[in-house]
Amino acid sequence: VTMAIKTILLLSGAFRLEGTECRSACPSGWSKYGSPNLASVHSTAEYNYIQEMVMIQTGGFPRAWIGGYDLAQEGLWLCSDGSRFDFTNWSKGQPDNYQGKQNCLYINYGAEKRWDDGMCSTRFPSVCSRRIPCLSQ
Ligand SMILES: [Ca+2]
């Protein structure tokens, strides 16, 4: 899980996402170390790692925001940290953009604990990440 080791993950409190201003969902103190953001997920290994971190923090598998959205164009998903949206783990039938209002991405949906698009104004915990400069060489 080498990519995931480059980031510190933190499950912050329950936040609603304000548009693409995902950074506001991460602790303000983190900005001095670079740019914190909602975690992006690029592989099954990274997703498993994030789920494990969330489980350690909470003792379960609560729904939680990660860094993906399709606010600019419906169906065009982007990572809030600017990396490529090159991996998905949608639940069956998702993303469904229910009532035309679901433009943010959360994890641990359904029995299989996969991904769903949800209303950005919903309050879930946020999985934040930032790079660790010394270990990313
Ligand atoms: Ca949905």
Give the CATH superfamily. Answer: Mannose-Binding Protein A, subunit A
| Distinct small-molecule ligands in the complex | calcium ion
Number of DSSP strands? 7
The secondary-structure class comes to alpha+beta
Percent of sequence in beta strands: 25-35%
Tally the structural domains. Answer: 1
Radius of gyration: 14 Å
Overall shape = globular
Average pLDDT, rounded to a whole number, is 80
**Poorly predicted spans:** 1-7
Per CATH, which architecture?
Roll
Order of helices and strands: HEEHEEEEE
CATH class: Alpha Beta
> Strand sequence of the main sheet, in spatial order?
4-3-5-6
Q: What can be said about the biggest beta sheet?
A: 4 strands, antiparallel
Note the gap between the termini: 15 Å
The percent of residues in helical segments reads 10-25%
Query: Helix segment count?
Result: 2
- The CATH topology is given as Mannose-Binding Protein A, Chain A
Domain C-type lectin: 21-129
Signal peptide: 1-19
Keywords: Disulfide bond, Signal
Protein name: C-type lectin domain-containing protein
